[in-house]
Amino acid sequence: MGLTTYFNMTKRILVVCTGNICRSPVAAAMLQQGLADIEVTSAGLAAGQGGADQRIAALAQADGYDLSQHQARQLDRNLLNNADLVLVMSAKQRQIIAQKWPEMLGKTLMFGMWRKDKPIDDRDIPDPYQRSDEVCRLVYDTIKTASLAWREKLKNTGGTSVW
User: Fold this and answer.
1) Cα torsion for 71, 77, 80, 81, to the nearest 10°?
2) Which of 12, 84, 127, 131 does the annotation list as catalytic?
């Protein structure tokens, strides 16, 4: 099955990060806004409790994304089973999924895979948790760029698309 066929079948996307309070909730909100016919949710490999990180939520709100109702949730087999596509923030997170749920690896891709500012083997999106405001802003901007790229790939999967 080619990527075009695969993406045409994508109706549920799960975005995964570590704590589900910074990267994945904002990435999910950004993807959802551009993909009305696809359900986008998020989870964390080591999620605690609580809402989105205040700094990420403020940056998102300034761009028109509302994270006020977000609550962190733990990744589990059920969430993975229900997703057609799983997007992770790092190669390490993809490895963790492969170790715990090897059958999910085929539908687990890097959120930053379409980045052109980094070599193919260095497209992780770093965790801004408890880092400086500058790092938080840089990560937010990187997620925004990656989200736009994913939205275009998921929208433009007609017969003329070249993968």
Assistant:
1) -130
2) 127
